[in-house]
Amino acid sequence: MNREKKRTMIDEYEINPCTMMIIPTMYGSKTYSQIVELKDEFLSPFRPIDIIKKSCQYFGSSYEGRITGTKQLVGITHKVPITIDPTNSIYFFPTTSPLNIQCIWISHEHVVSHKRLEPNTTLVTFRNKESYIIPVSYSSFENQLLRTALLRTKLMQRIEETERNSFYLYRKQRYFEASEGNGEYGKH
Q1: Cα Rg for the chain, rounded, in angstroms?
Q2: What total number of domains does the chain contain?
Q3: Residue 44 lies in a domain
């Protein structure tokens, strides 16, 4: 399933387009994060939720603001998927309540397929062809995937609508400037 990658210990980390998943892992009595990227793995002394919150701030919002935005856009109120950075298509969803110490955060962009294994485990295959066994039911995982897809679609529709409106406003302004001509008014 997973090929062994060397885990590098890091102090600072922001989620980026290569981040596939953030898994809580016990390190002594403390919860650390195993960060899985397309080609690398890192170990961070921060909990997954702390990395999610810091990454939201890095991209100009708060975690709470992202949650509020998701609720406003699509009406999801629990196990809320969030936009980390819409310009780079970075959307993550939690496998359980984010308050649960066992909550894994998964990048929607990198999930290629998922398959039911046992009642509460799902085999998830990512874009780099690596597979991981996630301790969550197939139906719950599928639901989170679909809810995140809905969030992405709604947000992209809003962004595209704003761009269209800006384009038409710009064209309208250019039309009026062109219709005024270059001459001075009142001169014969």
Answers
A1: 22
A2: 1
A3: yes
By residue range, what is the domain housing residue 13? 7-109+139-178
Answer whether residue 143 is part of any domain. yes
- pLDDT tens readout for residues 80-109: 999 999 889 999 999 999 999 999 999 999
Residue 67 lies in a domain: yes
Interior angle at CA 79, CA 110 and CA 118, nearest 5: 65
- pLDDT tens-place string over residues 40-73: 999 999 999 999 999 999 999 999 999 999 999 9
Question: Do 24 and 102 form a contact (C-beta atoms < 8 A)?
Answer: yes
Q: How far apart are CA 162 and CA 128, in angstroms?
A: 34
Q: Closest by alpha carbon to 22, among 59, 49, 54, 62?
A: 49
Task: Specify the pTM.
Answer: 0.84
Report if residue 1 sits inside a domain.
no
